[in-house]
């Protein structure tokens, strides 16, 4: 798959409205530190272990992810250093960014944020596990994309007092929220998420997938605009989101045309879905 990413330029109006309406959190020093270490020719496992061990949340998330079915190992990980050795640089970066995002705004209700990130973590694990069943889709990239596809939602909640209530109401109805975002707030979590991903240094392919994951024309966008590698991340995550709705209370049901288009793109049959249900049920148990 081609991983080159050339995004369709935002219109002047789109960019100005988003930047005028939304304060994108600055990239924290700890994320910058991990990025710097990760970009070395020979990253130091000792340095990465030290960074993760400095935060209880990062340590716990790293160990939990390393012991997840995404890595298919029966040998349990019991320390941060063992987790770092198993996860690899890309997953370590995902852990650090996820915890930094969780901690970026403490003004939001703790219960709401716990529910939001619990759902995101379950979806990320499911997408990563399902990616292992598809040739050419990186489980690590699927995990990272699924974890961050809606990461701008808490950012917008912090920016707009009415956002959380509208978001919750849309979730209760099982309705797409992006049109309401654009109508009420002059921006949406896909564009805000792309800005966040770009500012925090997420890979370009993942940033592209975040930006276009609600675009009604995403399956016919040119390759140089939305690479097939990014489109595959969106599709496998839609399938995962559909399946985990059966097992996870906080999951949002996905169906209709987006789900059917994802099935066609990945060549997913009803038999495959039955297999995926068993895989995800085991992964989430």
Key terms for this structure?
285 residues, disordered N terminus, 16 helices, single chain, mainly alpha
Strand content: under 5%
H/E element sequence: HHHHHHHHHHHHHHHH
Average the pLDDT over all residues and give the rounded result.
86
| Helical amount | 55-70%
Which class of secondary structure composition applies to the elements?
mainly alpha
**Low-pLDDT residue intervals, each spanning 5 or more residues:** 1-7
Overview of the structural elements:
By secondary structure, the protein is an all-alpha fold. It is built from 16 helices and no strands. Helix 14 crosses helix 15 (256-266). The longest helix has 22 residues, at 110-131. The radius of gyration is 18 Å and the shape is globular.
In short:
This protein is mainly alpha-helical. The chain contains 16 helices and no strands. Helix 4 packs across helix 6.
SSE topology sketch:
Layout: H1 12-21, H2 29-38, H3 45-53, H4 56-66, H5 80-87, H6 89-102, H7 110-131, H8 139-148, H9 152-159, H10 163-173, H11 178-185, H12 189-199, H13 204-212, H14 228-244, H15 256-266, H16 270-284
